[in-house]
């Protein structure tokens, strides 16, 4: 790796970890930052699934499976919060494996319908199994993350900043993992499958295996994020993981730019912060998302991530135009 | 090497392939011809596992491969090309062939995340395999071009390169010459002969009769899913049934 790159990463890391200080410990701002980080995790994991040409309209459903599993295990069985998060992810991945086989066999509109239905089904299930999930009122009073002591320093998760540091570390691990996968031979194979499944299978690629694997990985990550959400918010209800959150995650990916790894990250950050800035118009949030989606699809089909490219291109055209005029 | 026994495929009422008994020997170059809709491509789809036969058996090197999925059949050594230019349009030429080296590379998930030493070796060997094939096809100067920007003839050649990267023992070519100009046809035929000379069996569907007659050892002629003739090129050229299938019978014949 080039030294300039390493320096860039270190600066970025330092920036991320100094964010709570930059916002002067303001609780609300840190809350928004945590939302950003969670959404980055969700959008990136969904984007990984889309690289194989699949789409899931039920991603928040898997998040809720992680959140509920984690909450129930921690509160009823006394499992530690961290083990609970991992187990929540595993249960989400297990559910993903079970439903992945029908899911990976259908395409386009049918796949969208199937995953949408799945999300609704999970949400209904959480509402109906009152004895375990608390029905519509959900689960209340989930404890904060356990204290950790590293090298004699006690980290108490009573503060929001500590939660932010924790989930940021989780995000970095997830991003490094997904990025390495994306840039590897396996990641290229995903993109090959997205382009032509028949061709891929004719050269010996087990298309189903690859699609199921990335679907499960994506759902595992969503489940872990859900587990964190449960501990951070201390309250989870079926509503917090309905259809809208699932669709928002897709919009993050599309608006950011699905063809580039950074796209999902940029989309999630921008579309988390901007609506928060206009909190007074909260009822119009779905309208805002749809408007942004339309604008991006028509004006910037490659997503926000292509803005620098687009600017460079238009600037060059302007200069070229001038040069042509000067030559007249 | 490849053998089909009483192979049949029905689509609802339509009989696409009807009791075809056929075999291809080691290093043989066999042509499959017949009028449009004769079931040639369906035959390929059955052999490569893209379609499941209604009845009958397919054997490859003595092993029953009936009903196996396409990737498993490719793993055993039967690789096909497609009639349409099926290539990865958004990849470079090199990347197209690299990804098709999958069977040789056998790269796992975990090692590709940690970029271990074996991973880098395997990736390197996939690249070398791809470069070798591109050189074989005289394609190396185009390796960094996007596949979608290639000419039609080059896209067809890339389709063959992709199939070759999977190191087939038996290569099934579905109309490789369609839409090519005279020069490209000559070049491609020369390549097909060379592929065979290097020890790969070839099964060729083609409408260009001059090309078929000049390259194939043997022919299988299908019409309405049924075998109507087989034999050497000379035998087929004299065969009445074949001439009738292609040109139609005279009304007052017989």
In the CATH hierarchy, what is the superfamily of one domain in chain B? P-loop containing nucleotide triphosphate hydrolases
CATH first level of one domain in chain B: Alpha Beta
List low-pLDDT spans of chain B: none
Q: Which protein chains make the most extensive interface, counting residues with beta carbons within 8 Å of the other chain's beta carbons?
A: A-B, 24 and 39 residues
Biggest beta sheet summary of chain B: 6 strands, mixed
What is the helix/strand order of chain B?
Answer: EEEHEEHEHHHHHEHEHEEHH
Going by helix content, strand content and strand pairing, the class of chain A is: mainly alpha
Q: Could you report the average pLDDT of chain B, rounded to the nearest whole number?
A: 90
CATH architecture of one domain in chain B: 3-Layer(aba) Sandwich
**Low-confidence runs of chain A (pLDDT<50, min 5 residues)?**
none
The SSE order of chain A reads: HHHHHHEEEHHHHEHHHH
The DSSP helix count of chain A reads 14
Oligomer: heterodimer
Bulk shape of chain B: globular
User: How much strand content do the residues of chain A show?
Assistant: under 5%
Describe this structure in words.
The complex is a heterodimer of chains A (328) and B (254). Chain A is mainly α and 328 residues long. Chain A has one domain. Chain A is 75% helix and 3% strand. Chain A has 14 helices and 4 strands. Chain A has a two-stranded antiparallel ribbon with strand order 1-4. A two-stranded antiparallel ribbon of chain A has the order 2-3. The radius of gyration of chain A is 21 Å and the shape is globular. The mean pLDDT of chain A is 88. Chain B is α/β, with parallel strands linked by helices. Chain B is built from 11 helices and 10 strands. The longest helix of chain B has 20 residues. The model of chain B has no long low-confidence stretch (mean pLDDT 90). At the A-B interface, α7, α8 and α9 of A face α2, α3, α4, α5 and α6 of B.
């Amino acid at each position: 790796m080039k030294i300039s790159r390493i320096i860039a990463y270190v600066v970025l890391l330092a920036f991320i970890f100094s964010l709570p200080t930059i916002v002067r410990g303001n609780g609300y701002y840190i809350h928004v930052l945590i939302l950003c980080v969670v959404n980055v995790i969700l959008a990136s994991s969904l984007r990984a699934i889309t690289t194989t040409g699949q789409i899931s309209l039920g991603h928040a459903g898997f998040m809720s499976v992680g959140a509920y599993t984690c909450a129930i295990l921690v509160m009823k069985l006394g499992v530690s919060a961290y083990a609970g998060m991992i187990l929540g992810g595993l249960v989400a991945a297990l559910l993903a494996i079970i439903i992945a086989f029908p899911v990976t066999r259908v395409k386009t509109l049918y796949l969208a319908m199937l995953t949408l239905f799945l999300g609704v089904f999970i949400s209904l299930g959480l509402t109906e199994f009152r004895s375990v999930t608390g029905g519509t009122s959900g689960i209340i009073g989930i404890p904060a993350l356990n204290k950790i002591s590293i090298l004699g320093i006690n980290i108490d998760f009573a503060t929001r900043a500590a939660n932010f540091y924790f989930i940021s570390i989780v995000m970095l691990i997830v991003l490094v993992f997904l990025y390495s996968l994306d840039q590897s031979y396996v990641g290229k194979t995903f993109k090959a499958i997205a382009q032509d499944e028949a061709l891929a299978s004719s050269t010996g690629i087990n298309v189903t295996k690859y699609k199921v694997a990335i679907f499960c990985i994506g759902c595992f990550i969503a489940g872990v994020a859900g587990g964190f959400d449960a501990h951070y918010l201390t309250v989870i209800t079926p509503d917090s993981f309905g259809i809208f959150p699932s669709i928002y995650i897709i919009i993050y990916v599309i608006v950011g730019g699905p063809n580039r790894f950074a796209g999902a990250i940029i989309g999630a950050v921008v579309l988390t912060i901007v609506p928060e800035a206009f909190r007074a118009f909260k009822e119009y949030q779905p309208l805002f998302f749809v408007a942004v989606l339309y604008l991006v699809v028509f004006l910037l089909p490659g997503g926000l991530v292509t803005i620098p490219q687009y600017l460079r291109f238009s600037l060059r055209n302007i200069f070229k135009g001038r040069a042509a005029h000067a030559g007249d | 090497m490849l053998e089909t026994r009483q192979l049949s495929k029905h689509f609802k009422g339509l009989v696409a392939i009807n009791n075809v008994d056929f075999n291809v020997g080691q290093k043989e170059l066999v042509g499959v011809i017949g009028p449009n809709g004769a079931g040639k491509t369906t035959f390929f789809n059955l052999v490569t596992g893209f379609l499941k036969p209604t009845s009958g058996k397919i054997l490859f090197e003595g092993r029953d491969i009936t009903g196996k999925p396409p990737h498993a059949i490719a793993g055993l050594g039967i690789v096909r090309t497609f009639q349409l230019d099926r290539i990865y349009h958004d990849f470079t030429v090199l990347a197209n062939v690299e990804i098709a080296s999958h069977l040789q590379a056998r790269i796992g998930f975990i090692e590709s995340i940690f970029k271990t030493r074996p991973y880098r070796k395997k990736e390197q060997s996939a690249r070398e395999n791809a470069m070798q094939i591109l050189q074989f096809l005289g394609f190396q100067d185009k390796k960094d071009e996007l596949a979608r920007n290639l000419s039609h003839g080059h896209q067809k050649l890339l389709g063959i390169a992709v199939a070759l990267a999977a190191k087939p023992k038996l290569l099934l070519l579905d109309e490789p010459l369609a839409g090519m100009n005279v020069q490209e046809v000559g070049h491609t035929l020369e390549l097909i002969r060379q592929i065979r000379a290097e020890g790969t069996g070839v099964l060729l569907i083609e409408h260009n009769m001059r090309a078929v007659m000049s390259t194939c050892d043997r022919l299988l002629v299908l019409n309405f899913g049924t075998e109507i003739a087989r034999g050497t090129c000379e035998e087929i050229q004299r065969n009445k049934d074949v001439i009738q299938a292609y040109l139609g019978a005279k009304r007052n014949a017989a």
